[in-house]
Structures are given as C-alpha cells and as structure tokens.
Amino acid sequence: MNLDFTYHNPTIIHFGKEALSNLKAELANYGDTVMLAYGKGSIKKIGLYEQVVSILKECGKNIVEVTGIMANPTWEKVKEGAKIVKDNNVDLILAVGGGSVIDCAKAISVSAYSEEDAWTKYWLQFKPVDNKIVPVASILTLAGTGSEMNGGSVITNDDMKLKMGRVFPPNVYPKFSILNPEYTFSLPKYQMVSGIFDMMSHLMEAYFSGEDDTTSDYIVEGVLRSIIHSAKIAIKNPEDYESRSNLMWSATLAMNPLMGLSKPQDWQVHMIEHQIGAYTDCAHGMGLAAVSLPYYRFIYKNGLDKFVRFATQVWGIEEEGKTKEEIALAGIDALETFVKECGIVINLKELGATEEMLPAIAESTVILGAYKKLTSDDILEILKVAYTA
Amino acid sequence: MNLDFTYHNPTIIHFGKEALSNLKAELANYGDTVMLAYGKGSIKKIGLYEQVVSILKECGKNIVEVTGIMANPTWEKVKEGAKIVKDNNVDLILAVGGGSVIDCAKAISVSAYSEEDAWTKYWLQFKPVDNKIVPVASILTLAGTGSEMNGGSVITNDDMKLKMGRVFPPNVYPKFSILNPEYTFSLPKYQMVSGIFDMMSHLMEAYFSGEDDTTSDYIVEGVLRSIIHSAKIAIKNPEDYESRSNLMWSATLAMNPLMGLSKPQDWQVHMIEHQIGAYTDCAHGMGLAAVSLPYYRFIYKNGLDKFVRFATQVWGIEEEGKTKEEIALAGIDALETFVKECGIVINLKELGATEEMLPAIAESTVILGAYKKLTSDDILEILKVAYTA
C-alpha cells in the first residue's frame, strides 16, 4: 500500500569544505540580533566558534548566546534560551553543534513566544504551532540526528522523567544548514559510532513496516549500504574526507521524511530508547543499538519477507540452502557483527542502566510499532536481553 | 572526490490518490488571475480539466489559457504564453500535463517580463534570472522528466534547429506540484515506456562519472532497481496503482539535483538526444534509449569499474568466471534486454531520422561527458549504430 503524502523540504544545505563561505550571504536575509546556541565548548577547540563570531561581527550582528546545551537537551535549557530570545528580540537562532543543539534551538524557537506552557502544548499535546517563531539555522559538527534538515526536536523533561520527540512542520526546519565534513574529524570515536547507528536506526525504522515495495524501500537500502561501506573506512581513518562526507550526508537524508514517503513506519525502537535516555542519559545511538538487536529478533517473524530482503539486499546474505527464517536471522546477525566491529556499546548495564530501572522504562514507553504491537511485558523482555548483552 | 554542493528543493509535493484535494488551499496563496497551461487535450479526456476549472472557479479565480503545448515545446509557444501573461497580469501559471507543459510554463514565467530577448538571454547565454518571474505550479499527468520538482526547462527553437535545456534556480521551481498516479493510467504505452527510459537516463547520466563511491551513487542504484521492478509490473497492468505510484515518484526524484549531489556528471546522452529531438521531434525517452546503448558500449572501458558496479548492483550480473569487460558488457546487454522487453524503440530510422540528418546532428551536439570526451566523429559513429539498431 503506497500511502498519500505531502513532502516539503525547504532547508537550504551548503555542503563541503568551503560550506562556511556561504554564511555571510545567508545572514544578510535576517535581522541584526543573532543568538548563538552551542554545547560545552567543543566548537571552540576546533576553532569554529572564533570563525563564526568573526563572520557575525563582520556582518554587523549583535550576538547573544545560550551555551552548555547537553547531549539530551532539557526543558530547563529550552526555557533559559527562550528567555534570552524574548529579552533580546532575537532575529535568528544559529545553532552550532550536533543534533542536540539544533533540536534545542528549534524548541527555543517555538517556545519563546508561546503564551501557553510550551512543553505541554508542543511535546505533550502535539498542538500546531500558532505563535510567532524565530528562524533557526545551523552549522553542523556531528553526523547523526538529521536535525539540520528536518523538524525534529527531542527534549527531555527531567522533572517528569520524559524524553519526548516532536516533529515540527517545515516552517520550523532550519532555514539553512552548513555542513562541512571536516568539522567531524576530531569527534571522539564513541560519539562517531553512536551517530552511525543513529542514522542506520532512522532508516530501519522507516524500512521495517508494511509488506510494501516502494521506491523509498530501495532508497533506504542504498543509503544503508553507503553508511556500512563508509563507516568501515571512517572508523579506521577518521580524517578520510570521502567517507566522513558520505556519512554526514547519509545522516542528513536518513532522518528526512524523504526516506519514508508512501510508507507506514515503525519507530518502536526510538520510543524505547527515549525512555532509556530519560533514565540513563546514554548516548542515543548506543541506546538504539542495544534495543534494536533484541527487538528485531523479537518481531522478525511478523515481517519475515522484509527481514529476508534486509538480509540479502543490505548485507549480501546468500539465500541458497537456507529457510526464510535463517536468512532473516543471518541479516540481524550481520547487523550485530557490524555493530560490534564499530565498537558500539549494546549492553544496557554498560550504558548506565540498573536492573531496577527496566520495569519503569518499559512502563513509560510509548507504543508504536508496525509488524507487531508490543506490550509493556514484551518491552521488559527486550530490555532484559539488552541488559545482559 | 566528493564535490561541494548547495542543495535547495523548495517545491511542495502533494502525492497520491487524494492529492488534488490540496489545490484549493494552495491557490489561496496566490492572486486572482491564473493561467492554465496544457497540451493537446488529453487532460480533458481524463476529466481532469473540468475538475481543475471547477476548483479554480470555486476559489474565485479569473482563468486565462495557453493551450496546444507540444511534446517538444517551441520558443514560439513560449512567446505566445508570455504575451498572455503580460496582457492579463497573470498571478500564477498552473501547468497541467507532462514535463513539456511544465518546462514551457517555467520558460513563460522567466520570459514574460524580460526586457532582453529571453531565448538569447536564458537558453543561449545562460544569464541569471534578474527580471520579475511569475509563480509556476503543476498538476502532473505523465511520469518522466521530473520537471515538477526542479528548475529544468528544455525549449526548442525551430528556426535555429536547436533544442536547449536550461536549469533555473530554486525560485523558478514549481511552488507546488500535485501528483496523482491515477492520472497516468490512461497514457498510451508508447509514451509510458518513453517516460520510463527518460527517468532511467537521468539517473545514469548522474551515475556514470568519476571513480566515485558517494551516497548519491547508492541512491541512484536503489531508484534504478525500483524503476526496473515497477516498470515490469506497470507494463503488464497499467492500472496497478503501486507500480504507477513508484514510477511517478521515481521520475520526480530521478531528475532532481538530489541524485547527483557531490558528483561530477555526464549528460552527453541528453546532449545528443536534444539534437535528434530538434531534427525529428521523436519521443524524448526513445531518443535517449537509442543513443544510450551505443554510447555506453563506446565509453565503458573508460569507466570500467563503474560499469562493473552497474552490472552487479543494478542488474544482478554474477561476477564469477568473467573479466571486468565481460561483466560491464553484460550490464549494458541487460539494459538492452530490458529496453526491448518494455517495447522502447531504439532504432533512429524508426524514430524519424534520415541518414542525411546524422552528420548535422553530430556537428550541432554540445560536448559534455565524463569518462570520455567525444568528437563529432565519435558522435556520428554512435548515431550510425543507433540508425541501424
């Protein structure tokens, strides 16, 4: 079943070694006050902060800042940023960093002028955006979430122990995003491989659904194969430009609506991981990997043909002399082998979970899923496997 | 070598069985006078004309028309449309038809308010668009050119015997495009299979270049495989919604800049076909197929590894026991077999060429090309093979 869709992807992408040279021309389209949003200072280490501030000054912009944005950006941090935006009448929020920083920037954008409590309005009640929003743009330093070309904004409410994702419409997408693969060279390997699984997971969440055979399925297979190929090169040589470039662009595409057009989708892995993230603050991609392996082994019989296709088209598993079940499982095994070769952590204990947390994580997980609707007990079973992986 | 790029794809796509239901809301964003642009009446046969006019009237629009737009839209037709736009102060050009109608609508858009001769300015001198343009939107009835989500506009100047393509920037892209696969059901098989090769050719023009291994190469392989799979189903059963849907969306993607990002590209096949089209008025996709087969056999040794990859990844050719040359040629043979099974005409004589035309076509072809730069003599040799195919 090919579903109807509306697709609109207005973000302007400047990609490559000279991508930053486009910043000046882009800034001319916005007002005088720019809020820089960034994390804990890694952009200063690679010299990017200084470059960006110098361009902003050259363009005569007033600069304000929201800093210290963390891996799982909190609602507290969003409120801090929203206040700065309102107090300074900010014209553009320029997020410099990874997906967390961009997610936080979008959240600040929609929250600053909301008259209702924006957490409740946007992340709990999923209401439409009807208040003034502030344009967001990004300079990306980490490949993984795809936030640089979509409307996603995942925010953690520490008080409520809830990590909630909201996909905002195209008017909240970054107006422009600057992607230079070289910015990712100095990223610690732990974060790099976490990002690699993150992008793969986005593709698999779109892929494992329906008994469909849409153009999107073929594209997802292509991007997955590109990621697998480039990941192996980039892990050995983090300064290999071609592979880092392919990974960066694959990540942007992986979490774009483009990958799932016409398809129903899964997203159960993300729902489970969000709650693991709310309890442990683990690296997002690691949590996704930990959940994906036992989850796919739990559901594969319900989507057998698609898991067979995954095995043969993505991993090159030979079909001869095997049952469908064996082929499907060989595909998931190949995924596990790849994950381990990358150095991705898939043990929930190692990711900071305790045995006591597991029932609470299972209970609080939102149920989505395509091939099989899980119960809280099913999720607990999956978490237990991941806990001792 | 991964090249730097800027990517911006602002067109809003409404896709599916109910896509037309979005027209009313979209029209609210534009002024009162709408120019309908269409071809020779096939939109009346399928009842689409009546539906669209009824929605336009419901929205209180004044309707003017430019009709009779032909398969290779002429500069004369563009001038006719431009005059209507200027005389009526048109606010939106709504193209209803295939790629030719949309190409013509974009040409009218940029030409109406040009003070210089627009043919010379835009199609011969490739100058930037600096005059007022009129927004274009489209309702697509034929899958093939991708004009519904790009800036392409191919126009034929009959006096000069020149068919020239221009890729306009994102502000000339259709603002919105409505794609309902059901509109393609009644298309004659000849045009349908011509469109199928057209979309494949767009992908191959992006693919056969560089010794690269970019994410775009993997995506192209995926879309090609999707097209091959769906074409076989759709040719047998033209009213199979899933396959017509996949073909329609594949066509839109195939001619979008997305498919070639980070890559050098070829486009020599299109350059040769444009001149065949200028002399014979043949169906574009047929002309492309006629040229592609001898062209790829002429150049494959210069891009051997990529042709090997094409054979194995797109056509599933087994490598065992074969030389690289044999694998590469088997891939091109598989393409030829597919083309013939589809009923695509690859004989230039049958497409309306005469032996006398061939030298003139060869002489007037623009030289592009990636793996090998052709001479006019090379092109003549290729044309002679196609003439007796």
UniProtKB/TrEMBL annotation, chains A, B:
<dbReference type="Pfam" id="PF00465">
    <property type="entry name" value="Fe-ADH"/>
</dbReference>
<dbReference type="GO" id="GO:0046872">
    <property type="term" value="F:metal ion binding"/>
</dbReference>
<keyword id="KW-0560">Oxidoreductase</keyword>
<feature type="domain" description="Alcohol dehydrogenase iron-type/glycerol dehydrogenase GldA">
    <location>
        <begin position="10"/>
        <end position="181"/>
    </location>
</feature>
<dbReference type="InterPro" id="IPR056798">
    <property type="entry name" value="ADH_Fe_C"/>
</dbReference>
<feature type="domain" description="Fe-containing alcohol dehydrogenase-like C-terminal">
    <location>
        <begin position="193"/>
        <end position="387"/>
    </location>
</feature>
<dbReference type="GO" id="GO:0005829">
    <property type="term" value="C:cytosol"/>
</dbReference>
<dbReference type="InterPro" id="IPR044731">
    <property type="entry name" value="BDH-like"/>
</dbReference>
<dbReference type="InterPro" id="IPR001670">
    <property type="entry name" value="ADH_Fe/GldA"/>
</dbReference>
<dbReference type="GO" id="GO:0008106">
    <property type="term" value="F:alcohol dehydrogenase (NADP+) activity"/>
</dbReference>
<dbReference type="GO" id="GO:1990002">
    <property type="term" value="F:methylglyoxal reductase (NADPH) (acetol producing) activity"/>
</dbReference>
<protein>
    <submittedName>
        <fullName>Iron-containing alcohol dehydrogenase</fullName>
    </submittedName>
</protein>
<comment type="similarity">
    <text>Belongs to the iron-containing alcohol dehydrogenase family.</text>
</comment>
<dbReference type="GO" id="GO:1990362">
    <property type="term" value="F:butanol dehydrogenase (NAD+) activity"/>
</dbReference>
<dbReference type="Pfam" id="PF25137">
    <property type="entry name" value="ADH_Fe_C"/>
</dbReference>
